[in-house]
Each structure stands twice: as structure tokens, then as C-alpha cells.
Design a protein that fits this description.
Elements lengths: L9 H11 L1 H11 L5 E5 L12 E2 L6 E4 L9 H4 L3 E3 L7 H9 L6 E4 L6 H9 L5 E5 L3 H14 L4 E4 L13 E7 L11 H6 L2 H18 L3 E11 L8 H11 L2 E3 L10 E5 L2 E6 L9 E7 L20 H10 L7 E4 L2 E4 L4 H8 L4 E3 L2 E7 L2 E4 L1 H5 L10 E3 L2 H8 L12 E7 L2 E8 L4 E3 L14
Parallel strand pairs: 5-6, 5-8, 6-7, 8-9, 19-20
Antiparallel strand pairs: 1-3, 1-4, 2-3, 7-16, 9-13, 10-13, 11-12, 12-13, 14-15, 15-17, 17-18, 20-21, 21-22
Length: 455
């Protein structure tokens, strides 16, 4: 018998043996004993480095396997949103999107269980600037982390909300694609001892019931003919294909079969005409993962109800500053108290969503207005809307960049007064203000890093 099997709960190992067979299950158990690999997904809007030396993730055009795990906290490119650290199996979302969405890049997409932001940032890139991604996280603290990662990614076509899934039933037929990366028993991450220790049969049943509620509560928000992309990081059929079978029985969800490259090592799973796709360590380099697609059968579409209007409260100077500092369409500008914000969704759509949802991040904060002064927002520094030519640029080395990220008071060799951009090897870190006697550091207090760089 292979070593390591007894370290996992008996109910788990016996089910996997029945599910996969002796040989495949023992291959999986052995793979779960090995070290987890590291992969990143590069932000195509922020090219920063050559990744040609790294092996590409098979199913993701911007995904790469790293030979070892670096200290990401000490990489300014990471904080600038030049790449996202993401498990490679999860990047299969791009291949799914390519097959089911085709060339349509004018979509409303709901990422229902969004934190920490891997799928939302990926969708923001592959769906294109003409699409709206609403990414939701019900837990407020996790929603704040989600908003931070969306700000760093900088594409501007993502809105962050914090709502129970049932709240989205107030938007019947609004979304073309519903992505549910459901909370689960986490069997695919059994390389982590804490995940193994939390596992129990009772918890797997609880997860399955919670997933059913999430699916049924959000189903009405999907338009007729729209697509559900459902995924978990578990191997448990009760949380995977059987949940979609249940949805088929309840709502008539129609399974969509994908074309899978046989060289990728992905297992097709069939259950009562439901097709899903399993990622098993030992066969793939990434963690355990499951994904499936189904179509909503009816043809009902969204019928907008009264939603009020967004009061823009925009002044001529607001428009002038936004035009000087950004490439934003003026029709998407609005003021929220003293914040000048740009919404890529358009204010009509924003008003519909605002009347029904709790919105954490509605757009890109361009500036804070204090009297007649405009303080550029950190989100602007990280945004693809930024006109870099609007500000003097200070190029810094690694030590200076890390000092900036710690919110240290720094001295720079620059005579340009006022607002300056801090640049590290092509990645914008943020703003400083030269007031003559010193440079004030405007990196967000809540984002500052504390880890010291050891030389």
C-alpha cells in the first residue's frame, strides 16, 4: 500500500478509491503529499517582464508556472497589479470562456463568490473592456480584499459588491454569464494540513446544501439562454456534478459539453447527461479542481424597472481634471461626496445596480476633492485609464520601491513640484507629492507592507 493514505480520513480515501479506482486514486494520494507548485497570471494591460523562460499554463494565454515560489510581498510588480498569483487549474476558466462565449465581448457577468479576486481579474481581461463584471463577496472583510485586488488589476470594468446571493434575484435576467466558484469542502487542497483537519462527512453534506442554496438563489439573475459556469476545489461528486444534476431537475439546466485536449490530463466526468471536468494532482500540475457549464433553457430577458438616476454633481473643473489625468469617457464621471469617480459601466446601469445591491466599489476613484485641490487617487495610479504623461515620473530602484510600499518618507532626485508618479521598472507604484522640503508618500496606509528586505 502506498504511504500517506492513512494520513487522510478513511471516509475520504475509500470514496476516492471507489470513485477513481485503485491506480488513479493512489496516484492522486501520492501527488497530494508533494509540494504545491506556484503559478501566476500576467496582466495583459500591464506588461512588465519577460516570461518566455517560464512554462506556460496549457489552457491560459497569460498563465505561467514558476520554478519556485518567490517572496511576492517584496516584489513591487505584484503590488502594482502586473500579475496575479493564481492556482493553475483555476485558470481553465479562460478555456471555458473561449468555448462558450465565442467572440461576444459585450457581456454582463456575475462572479458570485468573488474573493480574493482570481476569477474576477481573469474575467476582466478575457471579457474585454466592453463587458461588465460584477464580483460579489458576502463577507465584508473579504470584500475589502477583493476590492483591493480589483483596484490593483486596474482594468476598470469590474464592480465589487457585498450581498447575499438571494439579493441578485432582484435583477431577473440581467446577467449573460453567472460564475459560481462555490465554497466547498476543499479536498483539492489537501496538501494543506489545516484543510485535511477541517474535513468531515458532515461538512461535505453542509457544503453541498449551501451550494444548492447559492445556485437556486442566483438562478433568476441569469437571462434565458445564459450560461452558468460552476466550479469547486473538491473531488466530491455530491458538491460537483450531482449538484448540477439537481439543478437540472429543479430548473431544467442544460449541460454544455466542452472539447478537451487529451494531452492536458483533464478527466471528463459524466453523470446523467451532465458533463463536468476534473483536475486531479498527479495528472495536472495544479491543485484539485472541478468545473462544469450549463445553459438556462428559457428565453426570458432582463426587463428594467424603475431605478432612479445617479446624480453626477460634476463640475467643469472635475471634467477638466479627469480629461487631463485620464482617458475616461466624461459621460461615466460622477461625484460621491468628495470623491471623483469614473464608472465604465455607464451611469444608467450603475443606477440599476445601486438601487438593488450593496456596492463596495462602483468604479475607479480618480481623485479626492478638497476645496479647490484635487488629490489623485491611488486607484488612478494603478488604472489603465491613467495618462502617464500628465505627471512627472520618478524611476526608483528596488530598495526605494519597497520603502515607498512601506510608506516611508523618502528623498528623490527630482525637482518637479507637486504630484509625481513612482515607477519601478515600468510598473507604477503610486503617487508622491513634492512639497519642496520633502516628498509626501501617498501609498494607502491600509495597504502598506511590513516585511523587511534582507540583503
Amino acid at each position: 500500500m502506498h504511504t500517506g493514505i492513512k494520513e487522510y480520513p478513511h471516509e475520504f480515501t475509500s470514496r476516492l478509491i471507489d470513485q477513481l479506482g485503485e491506480t488513479a486514486s493512489h496516484m492522486l494520494f501520492e501527488a497530494l503529499q508533494s509540494e504545491k507548485g506556484t503559478s501566476i497570471r500576467v496582466n495583459p494591460a500591464k506588461p512588465f517582464m519577460s516570461v518566455d523562460l517560464y512554462r506556460k499554463v496549457e489552457w491560459c494565454s497569460t498563465g505561467y508556472y514558476l520554478p519556485e515560489r518567490p517572496q511576492f510581498t517584496l516584489d513591487p510588480h505584484f503590488h502594482a497589479g502586473a500579475y496575479y498569483v493564481q492556482e493553475s487549474s483555476s485558470m481553465f476558466l479562460e478555456e471555458v470562456f473561449r468555448q462558450v462565449a465565442g467572440d461576444n465581448r459585450n457581456l454582463n457577468i456575475l462572479d458570485l463568490c468573488g474573493a480574493p479576486g482570481g476569477k474576477a481579474t481573469h474575467l476582466a481581461s478575457i471579457a474585454g473592456p466592453g463587458s461588465l463584471v460584477v464580483t460579489n463577496e458576502v463577507v465584508r472583510q473579504r470584500a475589502a480584499v477583493l476590492a483591493e485586488n480589483i483596484s490593483k488589476w486596474g482594468t476598470g470594468n469590474v464592480m465589487v459588491t457585498s450581498n447575499d446571493p438571494a439579493r441578485f434575484s432582484q435583477l431577473p435576467g440581467f446577467f449573460d454569464i453567472l460564475v459560481v466558484d462555490a465554497p466547498c469542502s476543499g479536498e483539492g487542497m489537501f496538501r494543506k494540513n489545516e484543510v485535511v483537519n477541517e474535513w468531515s462527512l458532515a461538512n461535505t453534506r453542509l457544503c453541498s446544501e449551501r451550494q444548492k442554496r447559492i445556485l437556486i438563489d442566483s438562478w433568476d439573475s441569469l437571462k434565458g439562454g445564459g450560461l452558468l459556469i460552476y466550479s469547486t476545489c473538491t473531488f466530491n461528486p455530491e458538491e460537483n456534478e450531482r449538484n448540477i444534476g439537481w439543478l437540472h431537475d429543479k430548473k431544467g439546466a442544460e449541460s454544455v459539453r466542452l472539447e478537451i485536449n487529451p494531452d492536458w490530463g483533464i478527466a471528463e466526468i459524466e453523470y446523467r447527461g451532465i458533463y463536468g471536468y476534473g483536475f486531479y494532482p498527479g495528472r495536472v500540475r495544479g491543485e484539485g479542481f472541478f468545473i462544469t457549464v450549463c445553459r438556462k433553457p428559457d428565453e426570458t430577458g432582463y426587463k428594467p424597472a424603475g431605478s432612479g438616476r445617479i446624480k453626477t454633481n460634476i463640475s467643469g473643473k472635475d471634467r477638466s481634471i479627469a480629461g487631463e489625468w485620464t482617458s475616461a469617457d466624461p459621460s461615466g464621471l460622477f461625484r460621491l461626496d468628495n470623491l471623483l469617480i469614473y464608472s465604465a459601466t455607464g451611469l444608467n446601469i450603475l443606477s440599476i445596480l445601486k438601487s438593488r445591491l450593496n456596492i463596495v466599489k462602483a468604479g475607479t476613484a480618480i481623485a479626492t476633492v478638497k476645496g479647490s485641490s484635487y488629490i489623485p487617487g491611488h486607484e488612478l495610479a494603478l488604472s489603465t485609464l491613467l495618462r502617464r504623461e500628465a505627471f512627472p515620473v520618478i524611476s526608483v530602484n528596488l530598495e526605494e520601491a519597497l520603502g515607498y510600499l512601506r510608506r516611508e518618507t523618502l528623498s528623490f532626485n527630482s525637482d518637479a513640484p507637486g504630484w509625481n508618479l513612482v515607477d519601478y521598472e515600468g510598473s507604477v507604484a503610486g503617487f508622491v507629492k513634492n512639497i519642496g522640503s520633502r516628498f509626501n508618500n501617498y501609498y494607502p496606509q491600509e495597504w502598506r507592507i511590513r516585511l523587511q528586505h534582507k540583503i
